[in-house]
Backbone:
Protein backbone atom coordinates (compact mmCIF):
# COMPACT_ATOMS: atom_id res chain seq x y z
CA UNK A 1 0.00 0.00 0.00
CA UNK A 2 1.93 3.02 -1.20
CA UNK A 3 1.14 6.32 -2.83
CA UNK A 4 2.43 5.07 -6.17
CA UNK A 5 -0.69 2.96 -6.54
CA UNK A 6 -3.03 5.73 -5.47
CA UNK A 7 -5.55 7.18 -7.86
CA UNK A 8 -4.34 10.62 -8.95
CA UNK A 9 -6.80 13.50 -8.62
CA UNK A 10 -7.31 16.21 -11.20
CA UNK A 11 -7.68 19.26 -8.94
CA UNK A 12 -8.94 21.64 -11.59
CA UNK A 13 -11.37 19.03 -12.86
CA UNK A 14 -12.77 18.50 -9.36
CA UNK A 15 -13.22 22.24 -8.83
CA UNK A 16 -15.03 22.64 -12.14
CA UNK A 17 -17.27 19.67 -11.46
CA UNK A 18 -18.13 21.13 -8.05
CA UNK A 19 -19.04 24.51 -9.46
CA UNK A 20 -21.19 22.88 -12.15
CA UNK A 21 -23.05 20.80 -9.55
CA UNK A 22 -23.45 23.76 -7.22
CA UNK A 23 -25.13 25.88 -9.87
CA UNK A 24 -28.21 23.62 -9.78
CA UNK A 25 -31.30 25.39 -8.58
CA UNK A 26 -33.56 23.42 -6.23
CA UNK A 27 -36.82 25.27 -5.57
CA UNK A 28 -40.34 24.95 -4.15
CA UNK A 29 -41.53 21.39 -3.35
CA UNK A 30 -38.18 19.80 -4.19
CA UNK A 31 -36.50 22.28 -1.88
CA UNK A 32 -38.84 21.44 0.99
CA UNK A 33 -38.23 17.74 0.39
CA UNK A 34 -34.47 18.27 0.32
CA UNK A 35 -34.60 20.30 3.54
CA UNK A 36 -36.52 17.56 5.36
CA UNK A 37 -34.06 14.98 4.10
CA UNK A 38 -31.09 17.08 5.20
CA UNK A 39 -32.60 17.47 8.68
CA UNK A 40 -32.89 13.71 9.04
CA UNK A 41 -29.20 13.34 8.11
CA UNK A 42 -27.78 15.63 10.77
CA UNK A 43 -25.44 14.40 13.47
CA UNK A 44 -26.24 17.12 15.98
CA UNK A 45 -22.88 17.82 17.48
CA UNK A 46 -21.38 19.43 20.53
CA UNK A 47 -17.64 18.98 20.94
CA UNK A 48 -16.39 21.69 23.21
CA UNK A 49 -14.15 21.58 26.23
CA UNK A 50 -16.83 23.43 28.19
CA UNK A 51 -19.65 20.95 27.41
CA UNK A 52 -21.73 20.19 30.47
CA UNK A 53 -24.27 17.43 31.20
CA UNK A 54 -26.93 20.14 31.04
CA UNK A 55 -25.94 21.21 27.56
CA UNK A 56 -25.79 17.62 26.33
CA UNK A 57 -29.22 16.85 27.80
CA UNK A 58 -30.67 19.95 26.16
CA UNK A 59 -29.13 18.97 22.81
CA UNK A 60 -30.60 15.45 23.11
CA UNK A 61 -34.01 16.97 23.75
CA UNK A 62 -33.62 19.19 20.72
CA UNK A 63 -32.71 16.16 18.58
CA UNK A 64 -36.25 14.80 18.83
CA UNK A 65 -38.08 18.14 19.27
CA UNK A 66 -36.59 20.27 16.52
CA UNK A 67 -39.47 22.72 16.37
CA UNK A 68 -42.57 21.43 18.08
CA UNK A 69 -44.86 24.17 16.78
CA UNK A 70 -44.31 22.89 13.25
CA UNK A 71 -45.52 19.26 13.01
CA UNK A 72 -44.20 16.70 10.55
CA UNK A 73 -40.49 17.33 11.02
CA UNK A 74 -38.12 14.35 11.17
CA UNK A 75 -35.68 13.73 14.01
CA UNK A 76 -31.99 14.17 13.42
CA UNK A 77 -29.98 11.00 12.77
CA UNK A 78 -27.66 11.08 15.76
CA UNK A 79 -26.13 13.05 18.57
CA UNK A 80 -22.36 13.36 18.57
CA UNK A 81 -20.52 14.03 21.87
CA UNK A 82 -17.24 13.52 23.73
CA UNK A 83 -16.69 10.14 25.46
CA UNK A 84 -17.31 11.51 28.96
CA UNK A 85 -20.76 12.68 27.89
CA UNK A 86 -21.86 9.31 26.49
CA UNK A 87 -23.68 8.08 29.65
CA UNK A 88 -25.56 11.38 29.97
CA UNK A 89 -26.59 11.36 26.31
CA UNK A 90 -27.50 7.66 26.38
CA UNK A 91 -29.95 8.32 29.19
CA UNK A 92 -31.40 11.40 27.52
CA UNK A 93 -31.88 9.66 24.17
CA UNK A 94 -33.62 6.59 25.59
CA UNK A 95 -36.67 5.64 23.58
CA UNK A 96 -36.18 8.24 20.85
CA UNK A 97 -34.59 5.91 18.28
CA UNK A 98 -31.86 8.49 17.72
CA UNK A 99 -28.34 7.07 17.48
CA UNK A 100 -25.59 8.09 19.82
CA UNK A 101 -22.19 8.77 18.34
CA UNK A 102 -19.06 9.46 20.32
CA UNK A 103 -15.72 10.68 19.15
CA UNK A 104 -12.84 8.55 20.36
CA UNK A 105 -9.14 7.76 19.79
CA UNK A 106 -7.79 10.95 21.38
CA UNK A 107 -10.03 13.26 19.37
CA UNK A 108 -9.24 15.73 17.83
CA UNK A 109 -5.47 15.27 17.51
CA UNK A 110 -5.21 11.48 17.60
CA UNK A 111 -1.93 11.88 19.49
CA UNK A 112 -2.04 8.92 21.83
CA UNK A 113 -0.67 5.40 21.73
CA UNK A 114 -2.73 2.67 20.16
CA UNK A 115 -3.67 0.89 23.37
CA UNK A 116 -5.03 4.08 24.91
CA UNK A 117 -7.11 4.65 21.81
CA UNK A 118 -8.48 1.10 21.83
CA UNK A 119 -9.36 1.38 25.51
CA UNK A 120 -11.23 4.57 24.83
CA UNK A 121 -13.17 2.94 22.00
CA UNK A 122 -14.09 -0.07 24.14
CA UNK A 123 -15.24 2.16 26.96
CA UNK A 124 -17.55 4.31 24.81
CA UNK A 125 -19.02 1.23 23.14
CA UNK A 126 -19.59 -0.34 26.56
CA UNK A 127 -21.22 2.90 27.71
CA UNK A 128 -23.71 2.56 24.87
CA UNK A 129 -22.42 4.49 21.86
CA UNK A 130 -23.95 3.21 18.59
CA UNK A 131 -21.38 4.94 16.45
CA UNK A 132 -17.73 5.76 16.97
CA UNK A 133 -16.00 8.66 15.21
CA UNK A 134 -12.25 8.00 15.20
CA UNK A 135 -9.44 10.21 13.92
CA UNK A 136 -6.56 8.85 11.85
CA UNK A 137 -2.95 9.53 12.80
CA UNK A 138 -2.26 12.33 10.36
CA UNK A 139 1.38 12.64 11.39
CA UNK A 140 2.03 9.00 10.51
CA UNK A 141 0.05 9.33 7.29
CA UNK A 142 2.02 12.37 6.15
CA UNK A 143 5.29 10.57 6.96
CA UNK A 144 4.17 7.80 4.63
CA UNK A 145 3.46 5.19 7.30
CA UNK A 146 0.34 4.04 5.53
CA UNK A 147 0.49 0.53 6.92
CA UNK A 148 0.40 1.89 10.48
CA UNK A 149 -2.66 4.02 9.68
CA UNK A 150 -4.40 1.07 8.06
CA UNK A 151 -3.65 -1.32 10.92
CA UNK A 152 -4.82 1.23 13.45
CA UNK A 153 -8.17 1.64 11.73
CA UNK A 154 -8.57 -2.15 11.48
CA UNK A 155 -7.90 -2.57 15.20
CA UNK A 156 -10.30 0.21 16.14
CA UNK A 157 -12.92 -1.41 13.93
CA UNK A 158 -12.41 -4.66 15.81
CA UNK A 159 -12.76 -2.84 19.15
CA UNK A 160 -16.01 -1.27 17.94
CA UNK A 161 -17.81 -4.61 17.75
CA UNK A 162 -21.31 -3.87 16.49
CA UNK A 163 -20.92 -0.11 16.66
CA UNK A 164 -20.54 1.72 13.38
CA UNK A 165 -17.13 3.17 12.70
CA UNK A 166 -16.67 6.59 11.12
CA UNK A 167 -13.13 7.43 10.18
CA UNK A 168 -12.18 11.11 10.31
CA UNK A 169 -9.45 11.93 7.80
CA UNK A 170 -9.02 15.57 8.96
CA UNK A 171 -8.58 16.66 5.36
CA UNK A 172 -7.54 20.17 6.41
CA UNK A 173 -4.23 18.65 7.50
CA UNK A 174 -3.74 16.35 4.53
CA UNK A 175 -2.75 19.22 2.21
CA UNK A 176 -3.63 17.71 -1.17
CA UNK A 177 -6.60 16.02 -2.82
CA UNK A 178 -4.31 13.13 -3.77
CA UNK A 179 -3.72 12.53 -0.06
CA UNK A 180 -7.45 12.78 0.63
CA UNK A 181 -8.13 10.11 -1.98
CA UNK A 182 -5.39 7.86 -0.65
CA UNK A 183 -6.54 8.25 2.96
CA UNK A 184 -10.13 7.48 1.90
CA UNK A 185 -9.02 4.29 0.12
CA UNK A 186 -6.95 3.20 3.13
CA UNK A 187 -9.82 3.83 5.55
CA UNK A 188 -12.38 1.95 3.46
CA UNK A 189 -10.13 -1.03 2.91
CA UNK A 190 -9.32 -1.17 6.63
CA UNK A 191 -13.00 -1.50 7.50
CA UNK A 192 -14.55 1.97 7.90
CA UNK A 193 -18.37 2.09 7.72
CA UNK A 194 -18.28 5.82 7.09
CA UNK A 195 -15.54 8.20 6.06
CA UNK A 196 -15.70 11.69 7.51
CA UNK A 197 -13.92 14.84 6.41
CA UNK A 198 -12.99 16.72 9.54
CA UNK A 199 -13.01 17.14 13.28
CA UNK A 200 -14.31 20.69 12.96
CA UNK A 201 -11.31 21.85 14.99
CA UNK A 202 -9.06 22.52 11.99
CA UNK A 203 -9.63 25.04 9.24
CA UNK A 204 -10.41 24.43 6.41
CA UNK A 205 -12.94 21.80 7.41
CA UNK A 206 -15.29 20.19 4.86
CA UNK A 207 -14.71 21.87 1.51
CA UNK A 208 -16.68 20.88 -1.60
CA UNK A 209 -13.66 19.60 -3.60
CA UNK A 210 -12.63 17.39 -0.69
CA UNK A 211 -16.14 15.99 -0.33
CA UNK A 212 -16.39 15.26 -4.05
CA UNK A 213 -13.01 13.51 -3.98
CA UNK A 214 -14.17 11.31 -1.09
CA UNK A 215 -17.50 10.56 -2.76
CA UNK A 216 -15.68 9.42 -5.87
CA UNK A 217 -13.46 7.19 -3.75
CA UNK A 218 -16.63 5.63 -2.27
CA UNK A 219 -18.08 5.12 -5.75
CA UNK A 220 -14.91 3.38 -6.99
CA UNK A 221 -14.74 1.25 -3.83
CA UNK A 222 -18.30 0.08 -4.40
CA UNK A 223 -17.53 -0.76 -8.02
CA UNK A 224 -14.56 -2.83 -6.88
CA UNK A 225 -15.96 -4.58 -3.81
CA UNK A 226 -19.74 -4.11 -3.89
CA UNK A 227 -19.67 -2.53 -0.40
CA UNK A 228 -21.49 0.70 0.26
CA UNK A 229 -19.52 3.05 2.48
CA UNK A 230 -21.17 6.08 4.07
CA UNK A 231 -19.99 9.67 3.92
CA UNK A 232 -20.02 12.44 6.53
CA UNK A 233 -18.86 15.95 5.76
CA UNK A 234 -18.39 17.90 8.99
CA UNK A 235 -17.32 21.37 10.01
CA UNK A 236 -18.28 24.64 8.41
CA UNK A 237 -21.62 23.46 7.04
CA UNK A 238 -24.00 25.92 8.60
CA UNK A 239 -26.52 26.93 5.93
CA UNK A 240 -29.42 25.12 4.30
CA UNK A 241 -28.08 26.19 0.93
CA UNK A 242 -24.78 24.38 1.48
CA UNK A 243 -26.65 21.28 2.66
CA UNK A 244 -28.75 21.18 -0.50
CA UNK A 245 -25.65 21.64 -2.63
CA UNK A 246 -24.11 18.60 -0.96
CA UNK A 247 -27.28 16.58 -1.55
CA UNK A 248 -27.02 17.39 -5.26
CA UNK A 249 -23.41 16.29 -5.18
CA UNK A 250 -24.20 12.90 -3.60
CA UNK A 251 -27.09 12.18 -5.92
CA UNK A 252 -25.00 12.93 -8.98
CA UNK A 253 -21.96 11.00 -7.75
CA UNK A 254 -23.39 8.03 -5.86
CA UNK A 255 -27.07 7.87 -6.74
CA UNK A 256 -30.28 7.61 -4.73
CA UNK A 257 -29.07 4.89 -2.33
CA UNK A 258 -26.92 7.45 -0.54
CA UNK A 259 -29.80 9.90 -0.08
CA UNK A 260 -30.48 8.35 3.30
CA UNK A 261 -29.20 8.83 6.87
CA UNK A 262 -27.87 5.27 6.68
CA UNK A 263 -25.21 6.34 4.20
CA UNK A 264 -24.92 10.09 4.49
CA UNK A 265 -24.63 12.43 7.47
CA UNK A 266 -23.90 16.08 8.12
CA UNK A 267 -21.76 16.79 11.16
CA UNK A 268 -23.03 20.17 12.30
CA UNK A 269 -24.17 22.22 15.25
CA UNK A 270 -25.93 25.25 13.78
CA UNK A 271 -27.14 23.72 10.49
CA UNK A 272 -30.39 22.38 11.97
CA UNK A 273 -31.67 25.83 12.90
CA UNK A 274 -30.89 27.29 9.50
CA UNK A 275 -32.75 24.43 7.79
CA UNK A 276 -35.71 24.92 10.14
CA UNK A 277 -35.78 28.61 9.30
CA UNK A 278 -35.82 27.76 5.60
CA UNK A 279 -38.60 25.21 6.02
CA UNK A 280 -40.72 27.78 7.83
CA UNK A 281 -39.88 30.39 5.20
CA UNK A 282 -41.19 28.01 2.54
CA UNK A 283 -44.34 27.38 4.51
CA UNK A 284 -45.18 30.91 5.75
CA UNK A 285 -43.58 33.00 3.02
CA UNK A 286 -41.75 35.15 5.56
CA UNK A 287 -38.05 35.17 6.28
CA UNK A 288 -37.48 33.88 9.81
CA UNK A 289 -35.49 35.05 12.81
CA UNK A 290 -33.22 33.04 15.10
CA UNK A 291 -35.18 34.56 18.00
CA UNK A 292 -37.96 32.03 17.45
CA UNK A 293 -35.84 28.86 17.41
CA UNK A 294 -34.08 26.95 20.13
CA UNK A 295 -30.55 27.99 20.99
CA UNK A 296 -27.89 25.73 19.52
CA UNK B 1 -6.52 63.91 -30.95
CA UNK B 2 -9.80 62.11 -30.52
CA UNK B 3 -12.23 63.23 -27.83
CA UNK B 4 -11.81 61.44 -24.50
CA UNK B 5 -14.60 59.11 -23.50
CA UNK B 6 -15.89 59.70 -19.95
CA UNK B 7 -15.70 56.83 -17.54
CA UNK B 8 -19.17 56.51 -16.06
CA UNK B 9 -19.83 55.41 -12.52
CA UNK B 10 -21.70 52.17 -11.91
CA UNK B 11 -24.30 52.70 -9.21
CA UNK B 12 -24.49 49.55 -7.10
CA UNK B 13 -25.99 48.50 -3.79
CA UNK B 14 -24.26 48.76 -0.39
CA UNK B 15 -24.49 45.54 1.61
CA UNK B 16 -22.16 44.34 4.38
CA UNK B 17 -19.59 47.03 3.61
CA UNK B 18 -19.34 45.94 -0.01
CA UNK B 19 -20.82 47.26 -3.23
CA UNK B 20 -22.49 44.31 -4.97
CA UNK B 21 -24.77 44.52 -7.99
CA UNK B 22 -28.31 43.32 -7.38
CA UNK B 23 -28.43 39.51 -7.35
CA UNK B 24 -31.50 39.73 -9.61
CA UNK B 25 -29.55 41.33 -12.46
CA UNK B 26 -32.37 43.86 -12.95
CA UNK B 27 -31.83 47.56 -13.51
CA UNK B 28 -33.93 50.72 -13.56
CA UNK B 29 -33.10 53.31 -16.16
CA UNK B 30 -32.76 56.70 -14.47
CA UNK B 31 -32.76 59.86 -16.62
CA UNK B 32 -32.19 63.39 -15.35
CA UNK B 33 -34.73 66.12 -16.10
CA UNK B 34 -32.69 67.52 -19.02
CA UNK B 35 -32.22 64.02 -20.39
CA UNK B 36 -28.48 64.61 -20.58
CA UNK B 37 -27.48 61.76 -18.31
CA UNK B 38 -28.74 58.22 -18.21
CA UNK B 39 -27.81 55.96 -15.31
CA UNK B 40 -28.60 52.34 -14.59
CA UNK B 41 -29.77 51.96 -11.00
CA UNK B 42 -29.90 48.51 -9.39
CA UNK B 43 -33.44 47.26 -8.96
CA UNK B 44 -32.93 45.58 -5.60
CA UNK B 45 -34.80 42.36 -4.95
CA UNK B 46 -36.22 40.35 -2.05
CA UNK B 47 -32.97 38.42 -1.87
CA UNK B 48 -30.83 41.55 -1.80
CA UNK B 49 -32.89 42.59 1.20
CA UNK B 50 -32.44 39.18 2.79
CA UNK B 51 -28.66 39.40 2.35
CA UNK B 52 -28.63 42.91 3.79
CA UNK B 53 -30.63 41.66 6.80
CA UNK B 54 -28.11 38.90 7.45
CA UNK B 55 -25.31 41.50 7.35
CA UNK B 56 -27.20 43.91 9.62
CA UNK B 57 -27.93 41.17 12.17
CA UNK B 58 -24.32 40.05 12.15
CA UNK B 59 -23.09 43.62 12.71
CA UNK B 60 -25.68 44.36 15.38
CA UNK B 61 -24.01 42.85 18.45
CA UNK B 62 -20.60 44.44 18.09
CA UNK B 63 -22.03 47.85 17.11
CA UNK B 64 -24.28 47.84 20.14
CA UNK B 65 -21.36 46.90 22.38
CA UNK B 66 -19.03 49.63 21.21
CA UNK B 67 -18.68 52.50 23.58
CA UNK B 68 -21.02 55.41 22.98
CA UNK B 69 -17.95 57.64 22.54
CA UNK B 70 -16.72 55.50 19.69
CA UNK B 71 -20.09 55.61 17.95
CA UNK B 72 -20.01 59.39 18.32
CA UNK B 73 -16.55 59.57 16.81
CA UNK B 74 -17.62 57.48 13.85
CA UNK B 75 -20.69 59.65 13.21
CA UNK B 76 -18.48 62.72 13.35
CA UNK B 77 -16.14 61.06 10.90
CA UNK B 78 -19.03 60.52 8.45
CA UNK B 79 -19.62 64.27 8.63
CA UNK B 80 -15.95 64.97 7.90
CA UNK B 81 -15.95 62.65 4.91
CA UNK B 82 -19.14 64.17 3.54
CA UNK B 83 -17.57 67.62 3.78
CA UNK B 84 -14.67 66.42 1.66
CA UNK B 85 -16.98 65.04 -1.02
CA UNK B 86 -18.96 68.26 -1.46
CA UNK B 87 -18.32 68.64 -5.20
CA UNK B 88 -19.52 65.18 -6.03
CA UNK B 89 -22.75 65.67 -4.10
CA UNK B 90 -23.24 69.12 -5.67
CA UNK B 91 -23.04 67.54 -9.10
CA UNK B 92 -25.46 64.75 -8.26
CA UNK B 93 -27.99 66.87 -6.40
CA UNK B 94 -28.17 69.36 -9.25
CA UNK B 95 -28.47 66.51 -11.71
CA UNK B 96 -31.40 65.32 -9.60
CA UNK B 97 -33.10 68.67 -10.15
CA UNK B 98 -31.98 71.01 -7.34
CA UNK B 99 -30.62 74.49 -7.96
CA UNK B 100 -27.01 75.14 -6.92
CA UNK B 101 -28.17 77.06 -3.87
CA UNK B 102 -30.61 74.36 -2.80
CA UNK B 103 -27.98 71.68 -3.27
CA UNK B 104 -25.47 73.58 -1.20
CA UNK B 105 -28.04 74.01 1.55
CA UNK B 106 -28.90 70.33 1.57
CA UNK B 107 -25.25 69.30 1.86
CA UNK B 108 -24.60 71.81 4.66
CA UNK B 109 -27.57 70.60 6.60
CA UNK B 110 -26.72 66.92 6.06
CA UNK B 111 -23.24 67.46 7.48
CA UNK B 112 -24.60 69.50 10.38
CA UNK B 113 -27.16 66.81 11.13
CA UNK B 114 -24.45 64.15 11.35
CA UNK B 115 -22.45 66.31 13.74
CA UNK B 116 -25.63 66.96 15.74
CA UNK B 117 -26.29 63.24 16.25
CA UNK B 118 -22.58 62.57 16.82
CA UNK B 119 -22.95 64.90 19.79
CA UNK B 120 -26.00 63.09 21.10
CA UNK B 121 -24.62 59.56 20.63
CA UNK B 122 -22.83 59.55 24.00
CA UNK B 123 -25.40 61.67 25.84
CA UNK B 124 -28.91 60.47 25.09
CA UNK B 125 -28.58 57.46 27.41
CA UNK B 126 -27.71 59.66 30.37
CA UNK B 127 -30.46 62.14 29.56
CA UNK B 128 -33.20 59.57 29.07
CA UNK B 129 -32.20 57.15 31.81
CA UNK B 130 -33.88 57.66 35.14
CA UNK B 131 -34.08 56.42 38.68
CA UNK B 132 -37.63 55.53 39.63
CA UNK B 133 -39.09 55.99 43.09
CA UNK B 134 -40.36 52.65 44.44
CA UNK B 135 -41.64 51.82 47.90
CA UNK B 136 -39.69 48.61 48.24
CA UNK B 137 -36.05 47.96 49.13
CA UNK B 138 -34.93 48.19 45.51
CA UNK B 139 -32.86 50.57 43.52
CA UNK B 140 -35.02 50.91 40.41
CA UNK B 141 -33.66 52.41 37.24
CA UNK B 142 -34.59 52.62 33.58
CA UNK B 143 -32.26 52.85 30.58
CA UNK B 144 -32.88 53.01 26.83
CA UNK B 145 -31.25 50.25 24.78
CA UNK B 146 -31.05 49.74 21.00
CA UNK B 147 -33.93 47.78 19.52
CA UNK B 148 -31.69 45.87 17.09
CA UNK B 149 -32.10 45.89 13.32
CA UNK B 150 -34.18 48.66 11.74
CA UNK B 151 -35.58 48.30 8.22
CA UNK B 152 -36.31 51.71 6.75
CA UNK B 153 -37.97 53.23 3.71
CA UNK B 154 -36.21 56.57 3.18
CA UNK B 155 -37.96 59.86 2.37
CA UNK B 156 -38.69 60.25 -1.31
CA UNK B 157 -37.86 63.94 -1.87
CA UNK B 158 -34.87 65.22 0.06
CA UNK B 159 -32.75 62.32 -1.01
CA UNK B 160 -29.55 63.18 0.85
CA UNK B 161 -30.79 65.10 3.88
CA UNK B 162 -33.74 62.73 4.31
CA UNK B 163 -31.47 59.69 4.14
CA UNK B 164 -29.01 61.17 6.64
CA UNK B 165 -31.84 62.26 8.97
CA UNK B 166 -33.09 58.68 9.15
CA UNK B 167 -29.77 56.82 9.33
CA UNK B 168 -27.95 59.06 11.85
CA UNK B 169 -30.31 58.75 14.85
CA UNK B 170 -30.81 55.03 14.26
CA UNK B 171 -27.10 54.17 14.29
CA UNK B 172 -26.29 56.75 16.98
CA UNK B 173 -28.62 54.70 19.16
CA UNK B 174 -26.62 51.51 18.55
CA UNK B 175 -28.96 49.92 16.01
CA UNK B 176 -28.04 48.66 12.57
CA UNK B 177 -30.11 49.59 9.53
CA UNK B 178 -31.17 48.38 6.09
CA UNK B 179 -32.56 51.34 4.18
CA UNK B 180 -34.30 51.60 0.82
CA UNK B 181 -33.15 54.82 -0.85
CA UNK B 182 -35.40 57.31 -2.59
CA UNK B 183 -36.86 55.73 -5.72
CA UNK B 184 -36.94 58.91 -7.81
CA UNK B 185 -33.64 60.44 -6.59
CA UNK B 186 -31.34 57.50 -6.00
CA UNK B 187 -27.92 58.82 -7.11
CA UNK B 188 -26.58 60.51 -4.00
CA UNK B 189 -27.74 57.68 -1.72
CA UNK B 190 -25.20 55.32 -3.24
CA UNK B 191 -22.54 58.02 -3.19
CA UNK B 192 -23.36 58.47 0.48
CA UNK B 193 -22.61 54.77 0.89
CA UNK B 194 -19.10 55.52 -0.39
CA UNK B 195 -18.81 58.14 2.34
CA UNK B 196 -19.88 55.58 4.96
CA UNK B 197 -17.41 53.10 3.53
CA UNK B 198 -14.50 55.47 4.23
CA UNK B 199 -15.71 56.55 7.68
CA UNK B 200 -14.86 53.55 9.88
CA UNK B 201 -18.52 52.50 9.94
CA UNK B 202 -18.22 48.72 10.44
CA UNK B 203 -19.50 46.53 7.60
CA UNK B 204 -23.20 45.77 7.89
CA UNK B 205 -24.12 48.62 10.25
CA UNK B 206 -25.63 50.58 7.37
CA UNK B 207 -26.90 48.82 4.25
CA UNK B 208 -28.40 50.84 1.41
CA UNK B 209 -30.60 49.36 -1.31
CA UNK B 210 -32.17 50.95 -4.37
CA UNK B 211 -35.30 49.73 -6.12
CA UNK B 212 -39.08 50.00 -6.13
CA UNK B 213 -40.90 50.72 -2.88
CA UNK B 214 -44.01 48.92 -4.03
CA UNK B 215 -42.01 45.75 -4.66
CA UNK B 216 -39.89 45.74 -1.51
CA UNK B 217 -42.15 47.15 1.19
CA UNK B 218 -43.87 43.80 1.67
CA UNK B 219 -40.52 42.09 2.39
CA UNK B 220 -39.20 44.95 4.55
CA UNK B 221 -42.25 44.73 6.78
CA UNK B 222 -42.77 40.95 6.92
CA UNK B 223 -39.19 39.78 7.64
CA UNK B 224 -39.26 38.16 11.08
CA UNK B 225 -35.73 39.28 11.97
CA UNK B 226 -36.54 43.00 11.64
CA UNK B 227 -36.99 44.63 15.04
CA UNK B 228 -38.35 47.98 13.88
CA UNK B 229 -39.81 49.16 10.59
CA UNK B 230 -39.50 52.82 9.70
CA UNK B 231 -41.64 54.24 6.92
CA UNK B 232 -41.43 57.72 5.39
CA UNK B 233 -44.33 58.74 3.21
CA UNK B 234 -48.08 59.18 2.93
CA UNK B 235 -49.28 56.23 0.85
CA UNK B 236 -52.21 54.85 2.87
CA UNK B 237 -51.92 51.40 1.34
CA UNK B 238 -48.22 51.17 2.25
CA UNK B 239 -48.87 52.42 5.75
CA UNK B 240 -51.56 49.83 6.33
CA UNK B 241 -49.36 47.08 4.94
CA UNK B 242 -46.51 48.09 7.23
CA UNK B 243 -48.79 48.11 10.28
CA UNK B 244 -50.35 44.75 9.40
CA UNK B 245 -47.09 42.96 8.67
CA UNK B 246 -45.39 44.47 11.71
CA UNK B 247 -47.88 42.57 13.85
CA UNK B 248 -46.31 39.25 12.73
CA UNK B 249 -43.48 39.60 15.23
CA UNK B 250 -44.55 42.83 16.93
CA UNK B 251 -42.04 45.08 15.23
CA UNK B 252 -41.74 48.61 16.46
CA UNK B 253 -43.38 50.85 13.81
CA UNK B 254 -42.03 54.34 13.17
CA UNK B 255 -43.75 56.51 10.59
CA UNK B 256 -42.88 59.94 9.22
CA UNK B 257 -45.28 61.81 6.95
CA UNK B 258 -43.90 63.68 3.97
CA UNK B 259 -42.20 66.71 5.48
CA UNK B 260 -39.53 69.29 4.99
CA UNK B 261 -36.52 67.62 6.60
CA UNK B 262 -34.52 70.84 6.57
CA UNK B 263 -36.43 72.27 9.50
CA UNK B 264 -34.74 72.13 12.87
CA UNK B 265 -37.61 70.29 14.50
CA UNK B 266 -36.51 67.22 12.51
CA UNK B 267 -33.36 66.84 14.50
CA UNK B 268 -33.93 65.85 18.06
CA UNK B 269 -32.73 63.29 20.61
CA UNK B 270 -36.33 62.07 20.61
CA UNK B 271 -35.63 60.70 17.14
CA UNK B 272 -32.96 58.48 18.68
CA UNK B 273 -35.49 57.34 21.27
CA UNK B 274 -37.88 56.16 18.54
CA UNK B 275 -35.64 53.14 17.90
CA UNK B 276 -34.87 52.34 21.52
CA UNK B 277 -36.31 49.79 23.93
CA UNK B 278 -36.73 50.67 27.58
CA UNK B 279 -35.16 48.39 30.15
CA UNK B 280 -36.04 48.71 33.80
CA UNK B 281 -33.91 46.99 36.42
CA UNK B 282 -34.86 46.23 40.03
CA UNK B 283 -31.69 45.99 42.08
CA UNK B 284 -32.12 44.85 45.69
CA UNK B 285 -30.65 47.10 48.36
CA UNK B 286 -30.33 47.02 52.14
CA UNK B 287 -29.86 43.26 52.39
Residues:
Amino acid sequence: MSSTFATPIDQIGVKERVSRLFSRSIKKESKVQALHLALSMIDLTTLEGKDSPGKVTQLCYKASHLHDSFPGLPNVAAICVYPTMVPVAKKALKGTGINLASVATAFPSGMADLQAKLDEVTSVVDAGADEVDMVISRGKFLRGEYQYVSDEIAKVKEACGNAHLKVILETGELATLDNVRLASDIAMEAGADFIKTSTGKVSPAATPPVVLTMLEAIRDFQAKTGKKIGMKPAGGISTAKQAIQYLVMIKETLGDDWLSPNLFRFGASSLANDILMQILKQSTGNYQSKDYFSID
Amino acid sequence: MSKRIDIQKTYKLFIDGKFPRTESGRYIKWVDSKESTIVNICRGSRKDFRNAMVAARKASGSWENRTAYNRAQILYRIGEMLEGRRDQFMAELTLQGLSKKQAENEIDQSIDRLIYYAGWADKYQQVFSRVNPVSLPYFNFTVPEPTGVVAAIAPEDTSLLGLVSIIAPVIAGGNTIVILASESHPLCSITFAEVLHTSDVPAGVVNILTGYRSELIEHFSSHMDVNAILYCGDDTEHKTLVETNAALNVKRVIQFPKQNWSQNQHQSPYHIMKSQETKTTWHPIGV
Observations:
- Chain A has one domain: 3-292.
- The longest helix of chain A spans residues 208-225.
- Chain A touches chain B through eight residues (CB under 8 Å).
- The mean pLDDT of chain A is 94.
